[in-house]
Amino acid sequence: MVICFLLYEGFTALDVVGPNEILSRLPDTEVRFVASWKGEVKSDSQHLKLVANYTIAEIDKTDVLIIPGSTVGFLEVLQNKSILNWISGIYPKTVYTCSVSSGSIILAAAGLLKGKKATSHWYSMRFLGEYGVATVNERYVADGKIVTSAGSSAGIDMALYLASILDSEAQAKAIELMIEYAPVPPMESGNLALATKDTMLLAKKKLKDDALRSGILTLI
């Protein structure tokens, strides 16, 4: 089984590293990092880079495709016809096409989510409605062969779900135990239903500050 992660400038590292930690542990699985170019690709923090060992021109099929989100990098991908065409072209050959966080906006721009149910990061959710997507406020949402997940940590939940259907529930449970995934967040502010208004406003400010540092002045 081949699993491909799309990398692009400014991707969020956890959106890739979290699901990779789970899915790479499945038997007989090869993980490939794919980008428009071979070599290093910077994450949105600028401090962490991953290496793309394939270009999109070299990959014409995969069993699973995963599109990570980003703070603002996805906005540039929305204008990149070669990437969007590659996603829509490879889609019929996938068993599952997935996204983490704002990666679902990229799937929508590639024409794959119209009329489907999907989720995204809470701050980018409204984009999905503009693409005719039925938005769902869940950790992950499966609609046919498309699986989308909410903010970065939800990619781990999605990956465990994928592990259970790509292999078995027993494998998924064993991997969940291996990585000791039993979250009990100390702050209890991990979604809008739990967060106070002040926490939400501070989170929005930090997201906008990240956008400004990236040179993109308009963020969602």
What does this protein structure show overall?
- With 220 residues, this protein is an alpha/beta fold.
- The chain has eight helices and eleven strands.
- The chain has a seven-stranded mixed beta sheet with strand order 5-2-1-6-7-11-10, sandwiched between helices. A two-stranded antiparallel sheet has the order 3-4.
- Helix 1 packs parallel to helix 6 and helix 6 packs antiparallel against helix 7.
- It is globular and about 45 Å long.
- The mean pLDDT is 91.
Short description:
The protein has 220 residues and is an alpha/beta fold. It has helices at residues 13-23, 73-77, 81-90, 103-109, 125-130, 154-166, 169-178, 197-213, and strands at residues 2-6, 30-35, 39-42, 49-52, 54-55, 64-67, 96-100, 117-118, 134-135, 140-143, 146-149.
Topology (elements, then pairings):
Elements: E1 2-6, H1 13-23, E2 30-35, E3 39-42, E4 49-52, E5 54-55, E6 64-67, H2 73-77, H3 81-90, E7 96-100, H4 103-109, E8 117-118, H5 125-130, E9 134-135, E10 140-143, E11 146-149, H6 154-166, H7 169-178, H8 197-213
